[in-house]
Amino acid sequence: MDAAFAVDGQAYGRLLKHGLVSVPKDLPQSRPSLLQALQAAEFSRHARQQGKSRSSKLRRAAAQPQASSLASTGAMTSVAVAMLCSGRALVRRSRRGARARSLRIRPCAAPTASTVPLAPRPVDVSALFDSVSERSKAAARFLAGLKVPMPLLSVYTALPTLSVLAAVLCPRHTRLARGLAGALGCLLGTMAGSFLKAAKKDAAACSIARLLSEHMQEALSVEELRSLIAEERRRFGVPVGDRISEDWEDVSLCELYEALLDKVVQGPENDPSDLPNLQRLKAVLDLDGTVVGNAHRHAAQLLVSRGYSGVEGEAMRIATDKLLFLSERLFAEEVPEEAGKYEMIRLCQVLKMADKEAAERIGVVSRALYQQNLSAVVDKVDAHTGEALAGAKAAFGLAGEEAEKMNADTYKQIAADLLSGGSLASQGKATLERARGVLQLGAPAADAAFVAVASPILRKDVEQLTSSLKDEAGTTASDSLKASATKLATRAEELGLAKSPAFRCVKEGFIATLRSQYNQACKDLRINGAKAALQTLDKLVAWAMAGDVMLTELKASEQSLSEELPLALPADPLSGRRLYGIFLERSLSGEAPSGAAAPEELARALELSEADETTARVETCQPRLREFYESSIEKAEAAGTPLEELKPDLSDQMAKLKLPFDAVEETAIEVYKSRLAKFNGRVLKAHESQQLDAARGFLELDKSTVRRHHIKAFAETYQSSVEEALGRAGVMAPESHEALFQLRERLGLEEEDTEKIFNSVIEERLRALMVPVRDAWEEATYTKEALTQLNKERGKDIGDDPRADGSGGELGIKDTPQLENVRGFKLMEELTKVANFYKQNKVLKEDADEAAEESYPVTVGKWIEDKNKEEMFGIFTWNAVTCQETASRDKWTRVKPVVGGILGLSPKTQQKVMVRMVSRWCNMFIKNKIQDQGELSKDDISTLTDWVPMFFGIDKDVTKDMVQATNKGILQNKVLGILNKPVVTPEDLANLREEVSKWELEVAKDLELSQPQLRALFRVEVSAVLEDPDLNDEQKVDGVEASREAFGLGEKEAMNEMHDLIKSRSRACLVNALGDLMQENSKDAVREMQRLELLAAFGDSAGMELQQDWEVAANMRQKLLKTYVAGAEKTPNVSLLERVLDLVTA
What we know:
73% of the residues lie in helices and 0% in strands. The protein is an all-alpha fold. The protein is flat and about 160 Å long. The chain starts with a helix and ends in a 6-residue tail after the last helix. 34% of the residues are buried. The model is unreliable at 1-119 and 802-821 (pLDDT under 50).
């Protein structure tokens, strides 16, 4: 805070020193010189200092007798007198103290409207604090001037002194009387001590006010003044940093700050001394942010109360703006920054003002104060002014951009004063250079400010020149124009303008003249007509050319100029095109006066883009070109001369009009369209076709360019001719095809376009032919009841047609159908008619591939659903193959691919339909054979795999897959039968596997068995392998592995199954052996125990753990083992069986 004030205080000192403060409003409006302002400021300051020094000497002289008197008569006597004289003051002080401490602010009644001065005066700080000191209590003023040690004036000295004094002065000398007097003295001493404590605090405030009155505006530094104040505080018992001083600081020091703040707020507007005074006071009193914030908040409350009391208008605005500005600057010194923002928010809440409005009003005050400092720069610029301005900018919190703008405006004012005589002297240049340094302007900013002032002066000279030359620019000699340019350059040098801004200024003046002429031309064209506009345009072009001469001369003197030379005006595109159009029209018609500029010069002067110039030229020249085309064609047709002879004239016209290719082609197309319109909707004659070809050649149009227009003109004509050629029979004769070819050539239609027209007619006829096809298909596939219901819905009655009694589901398929009774015979005939119609009318080209899908430009499409189309083709292709009548079969077979193509079926789809039909027959054949024989014989399989593919023309894999599918179903049933048998033998599985392999199938992959089913088959086969006594362990392992692979089990899965199988089979063998033994069938018991031994031996060799719950008692297991040992043909492995059967004792 001290450092901040040091900067601001020094800045303010420099402002006072150099006269950069504003003149009070009550002075005359004429601005005094800087020297007069300095003299006035210095005189005022010395006068105040001399008056204060005299008053302080008088006060010190008056205090000396008092000090000597006290020294001679005793300090306590004077204190007692002061106490008795100030009794009422003590009571008032005690009443006021509690309220002041609670509020922490100086109690003050809201002033009325009559108390607000009408003409505020600048704040006299010395007088203010003198007044504050004089308003102090009498005891405080007395103690402030008393030159005795203040510790003597306390309860510790007053109590014994008054007690002894009372005892001595007691009129009765008895012990009791003196004791009572001493007690009364003690009471008086206690009261005196309390009074002295409060009086010393008031005396401290009074003494500080006197110090501020004497030294606040002197050259005494902040630290020195702060030291004096600290000394006074220690003297009166309220030292800095002591806890007992905090309440006194919050009240007394805050009252001193509030007194100055309140006076400043009520002072004149934009007084630059207000902020430094408050900052200095805050620094010397060492006030913290909380005290200052409360003071400003209280000042805001007082302002609001004044507003309620009737103070409003300009005075209220000035006071509010000053308070906002001072608060913002003082709060800005707080650390952290958030503390200052918080205090500012509190202030705005009291004033009921938004943050944005407060910021705007603060900015207004900052700019006004800084502008006062800038006013001195206009009068005088010296070496110290720049530092003062920099300090002022920082002190007033002005943003850098705003300060730069205001500095630039001041620089403009200085430049305007220097140029007021019409030129810039050399001394003026030096002054501007110094001003630039003082105002801290960069070279670009200073140059821009000077150009902004000097350019209007040069512009007036340019306007005088243009007013005298613009109407006569076309007749002014080049030398005269160059001389005028030289005068302008000389004038620019007199004004101190550099070459580049001078050139721009002159060019802008010329462009302004050009714009006025352009505006006049637009107005003339709108009001007075094209003739008046053309006269103005002639002047505009002449002035543009004259301006180019003068600008060239100006640029010749300075080669470094980078400005573009051509004098041009960026005109509005629409208006520019209209003006250019009438100018070009006059040039093309030959009505331009002699010496008139070319249209290109006008386009350059108006800065028309290439696109705009082209657009205007097209708008003007296209009608002329069309007129030339039409007149040339009509003239040639009337005279009977070839149009080729007029080609040279056309070339000359093209060179004159300079139209782009697109515009020429567009015009030619429009002319050709108008020629076509004469023959629209009828067949051309031979000479008419020749005339059209000649016109197209003259217009240089390709056939592809006019193709669309020929289609639009003659498509209906060609379509009618095709329909007429088809006739009612629907078959076109060869002569008709030739006639249509000639018609296409005469109408100028392309082959592709006539094919589309031809196909559209064929499509309509095909749609009509497909109606009987649909009816025939419905008769062949629907039942009589369904067909009757369908026809009823359509409003059609077919009576009792015996052919309509179909079975529906069979779709016309019979093993050996007769010709008369072919299911779908009518459908076959109708589809054959469609195919013949297609081929006879050459819709299908003679050399086209009938199987290729792209050979059929016209198909049924979406008229019939895909499912129904496939069923139609299925019936047709089945009957074409199975028909026993040779002629019909051959006829239907020939058109079969054509029928499929017309129905929109691809070759792949046709084959798929055929396969589906054959599959139905094969399934029926297999079903019958299975029902009769239970399986397919070799002859049946040969029929399916050999004869059927050959007869129906399908792939062998199709029937082979069907046979496999059939056998797969049979084999699946066999597997289910095996699994459901109570006892499954290995022979059953061997037969199954042999039959599966015969059909090239696999049990695991092709029979679609579940995993549990596969595991069950594996257990059956492995059980037989493991219990076979003729196989060794290696052979058994191979058998298990082969079974695992056959049934598709994994190694781990097979191992788990085999382990479970061995344990379960072993337990079953043991239980069976026990049963046989119980029935006294020792032979069977030995056989079961032998199986157990085989299983145990294999499991032991495989490393399996076979011990389990055998469900047989141990003594019975021992008995079975003994029985087996006694009855076995071979010596058993007793140790293995004992270990497995858990008979080994530990």
